[in-house]
């Protein structure tokens, strides 16, 4: 199995690039953002709890997200997983490592998309015009998401840097160019 974490601040293109990567490398896509939005759409108790945090630009509590991922990992047939938007805290990273160890596998590479803050805000506001996402159409909430990223999520890259697994990839430019850089790094490590 070859498992990848696609890492980066909100709006850095994780969702966009994940779609292409899972199709090229035949990986199972695990996006905690997508799973949470589907829980919200179905108005499940988990979704209703998550919505309170997401609407304010805050992270959903670790125990909720870790529980969700641990059931999603029960899929022995796949060639590997692509984690998109997970882990977002050091506690989530430690929990993921433990879960993967139980499956006798590990993270192969962490690809970190680098995008400037102004570009992130512009992209998310643009997406907010059509996405219907309540966390994309308010500049205060977008800024809160970026603050949350610096406060809690950027430490996840430091955690994996200790194991020499992190590679910074320029995340500005065309979607095709960024995809090529991501694939080049995966092909080198796979
Ligand atoms: P997510 O759903 O993970 O999404 P995201 O960070 O908003 O965006 P992403 O980086 O995937 O951007 P995209 O490709 O779509 O998180 C949403 C919320 O869920 C979080 O704030 C949090 O509350 C909660 N959550 C999720 N996971 C959690 C966890 N593990 N723990 C706790 N809470 C969690 O790109 C954005 C836009 O840019 C798109 O419009 C796209 O078209 C555009 N774009 C992409 N690439 C481009 C390029 N190269 N050039 C120009 N535009 C580009």
How is the secondary structure organized here?
Layout: E1 3-7, H1 14-25, E2 28-31, H2 32-41, H3 45-54, H4 62-72, E3 81-84, H5 90-102, E4 107-114, H6 117-131, H7 139-161, E5 166-170, H8 175-189
Parallel strand pairs: 1-3, 1-4, 2-3, 4-5
Bound molecules: BIS(adenosine)-5'-tetraphosphate.
BIS(adenosine)-5'-tetraphosphate binds next to helix 1, helix 2, helix 3, helix 6 and helix 8.
What is the string of SSEs from the N terminus onward? EHEHHHEHEHHEH
List low-confidence stretches: none
Question: How would a textbook summarize the main sheet?
Answer: 5 strands, parallel
Rg estimate, integer Å: 16 Å
Overall pLDDT: 96
Structural class, by secondary structure, is: alpha/beta
Brief digest:
The protein is of the alpha/beta class and 190 residues long. It has helices at 14-25, 32-41, 45-54, 62-72, 90-102, 117-131, 139-161, 175-189, and strands at 3-7, 28-31, 81-84, 107-114, 166-170. It contains eight helices and five strands; from the N terminus they run E-H-E-H-H-H-E-H-E-H-H-E-H.
């Amino acid at each position: 199995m070859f498992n990848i974490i696609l890492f980066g601040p909100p709006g850095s293109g994780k969702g966009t690039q994940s779609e292409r990567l899972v199709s090229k490398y035949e990986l199972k896509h695990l996006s905690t953002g997508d799973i949470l939005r589907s829980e919200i759409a179905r108005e499940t108790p988990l979704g209703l709890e998550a919505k309170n945090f997401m609407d304010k630009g805050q992270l959903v509590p670790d125990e909720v997200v870790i529980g969700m991922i641990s059931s999603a990992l029960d899929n022995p047939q796949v060639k590997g997983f692509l984690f998109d938007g997970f882990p977002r805290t050091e506690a989530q990273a430690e929990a993921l490592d433990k879960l993967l160890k139980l499956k006798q596998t590990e993270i192969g590479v962490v690809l970190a998309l680098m995008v400037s803050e102004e570009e992130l805000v512009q992209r998310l506001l643009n997406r907010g015009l059509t996405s219907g996402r309540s966390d994309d159409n308010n500049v205060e909430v977008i800024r809160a998401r970026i603050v949350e990223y610096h406060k809690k999520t950027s430490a996840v890259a430091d955690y994996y840097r200790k194991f020499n697994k992190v590679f910074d990839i320029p995340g500005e430019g065309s979607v095709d160019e960024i995809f090529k850089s991501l694939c080049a790094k995966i092909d080198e490590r796979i």
